[in-house]
Amino acid sequence: MDISKKTFIWAIVGLIILRIILMILVMNNIPFTDMQDGGFRPTFTESYQPDEPQFYQMAKGLVSGRAERLVPNIGAPIIFAPLIYFTGVSSPDELAKSVFVFEAFVLFSLALILVALIAKKIFNSRKLAGISAALFIAYPWMLLGIFNLAGYKNAVPAFHYQLWIFILSDYLSAFWVYLGFFLIFKWFENIFESPAINWKELIVLAIVSGAAILTRMGNFWLILIIFSTLLYFSRFKKAALYGFFLGLAYLPQLIFNMAAFGAPWIYGYRDPLLGASTSSGLFSNWFNPSNLWFNFSNFSPDFYLIFFFLSTGFLISFFIFGYAYFSKINKKFTAIAAAWFWSYLIFYWTFDESLSQLRYFLPMIPVFIYFFVAAVIYLVGKFNKKIYV
Questions:
Q1: Residue with the larger pLDDT of the pair 297 and 58
Q2: In angstroms, what CA-CA distances link 135 with 143, 277, 323?
Q3: How far apart are CA 108 and CA 55, in angstroms?
C-alpha cells in the first residue's frame, strides 16, 4: 500500500530536518571526526586544499571582471562568485563557511527533493521514493561505519566528502545531474515521445545540461543519454535544437577560455604550466582501464583484486535484480536509468585515485540507491513466492 501525497510531502520535510540535525551534530564532532574552525572545516588537506584556492581565485576573478588562468571550469565559480561578492570574504577559509551553509543545508535539501521525485517517477511509489531519499541521507554515515570497521585509513575524509561541505565542483555537478534526469523523466512524453516541439521543456533541459558540463566535463554522459534517446525516437529536429541551445548554454566557458587562454578550445585543466597532466592524450593520465582494479589499492595494497571482484560481483548482481524489477513496473525509464548507472560508474571508476575520495561518484549515488532498493524488493518477492506459493 502506497502513502498519500500529504504524507509523502511531510516525510520529505522530516528528512530535510533530520539532515540538518545530523549536520549540526557533525559540526559538533558527533560522531567524532575532528572538525575544526567552529565545525566548518575538517583537518585533512591532502586533496581538497589544492583545489579550493583555485575555485576561490577564479570566483574572485569573476567578481572583479578578470578571467583567471586557472584549472577549474567556470560552472562552480559562477555560483561561488555571489557568495564572495555579498560576504566580502578575502580568502578560501573565509569563503568556506558560506559555501558550507549553502551546500550542506540549501543545495543538499534541493538535491534530496530531486532524489525523492526521481524515485517517485521510476518506482511509481511514494513510499519507495521516501525510502530512497532516506538512504540518500543515511549512506555517508553507513560508509563511515563500514570503513571504520574495515580499518580504512581514509574513512573520515571519505565521509566528509559525501557531506557537501567543500569549495569544490562535485556537489554542484551532482545537483545539475539530478535535476537533468528529473527533467528527463518528468517531461519524457513531451520531449522524446511527442513529435511536437515543446520549446520550454527543450530549452530548460538544454540549459540544465549546459550547467552540468560547465561545472564538470564528465557530465557529458548526461548529454549523450539525452541525444541517444532523442535519436532512438527519431526526433532529429529536436536533437538539433537541443544541441543548439546546449551550445548557447555552454558559450560562457568558451568565452572565458578565449579571455584567459587566447582560444576557446584551450582549457586550464589541460595546461601543464597550471599543474595539469603533461600527457598529450585526450584524457591525459587520469583515465585507464587498469584503474578499475588498481584503485582498490587505496583500501588494501595487498588484496585489492579481492576487493575488486567482490565489489564488481555485488554491483552486477544488484543491477541485474534491480533491472528485472524495473523492467516489470516501468519499462519506459529502465534503459535510461541503466545508462545513468553504468556510464558514470565505469567512467569514474577508471579515473585515477577516484576510490580514495568517492566524491567523484556523487552524480550516480541516487541511481545506485534506486537499483539497490529495486533489487531488494525483487529478491524478497522471489523468496516469499518460493516459500508461500
A1: 58
A2: 11, 37, 19
A3: 20
Most confident segment among 88-97, 114-123, 267-276: 114-123
Tell me: pLDDT of 350 over 80.
Answer: yes
Q: Are 2 and 127 in contact (CB under 8 A)?
A: yes
Does residue 272 lie within any of the structural domains?
A: no
Q: Kindly report the length of the chain.
A: 389
**71 and 33 assigned to the same domain:** yes
- For residue 112, pLDDT beyond 80: yes
Dihedral, CA atoms, 29, 138, 167, 217, nearest 10 degrees? 160
Structural domain span for residue 249? 171-267
| C-alpha cell read off for 386 | 518460493
Cell of 117: 521525485
Which residue among 145, 168, 191 closes a domain? Answer: 168
Tally of structural domains, the chain: 3
Question: Does the predicted model carry a pTM greater than 0.85?
Answer: yes
Short-list 381, 369, 385, 375, CA closest to 181: 369
Q: How many angstroms separate the Cα of 282 from the Cα of each of 45, 267, 269?
A: 29, 12, 12
Rounded CA-CA distance 337/368 in Å is: 10
How is 212-268 classified by DSSP, letter by letter? HHHH-GGGHHHHHHHHHHHHHTT-HHHHHHHHHHHHHHHHHHHHHHHHHHSSTT--G
Grid cell locating 316: 552486477
**How far apart are the C-alpha atoms of 119 and 37, rounded to whole Å?**
37
| Residue whose C-alpha is closest to residue 356's, from 295, 309, 312 | 295
CA angle at 70 for the pair 65 and 76, rounded to the nearest 5°: 70
Write out the three cell numbers for 256.
572565458
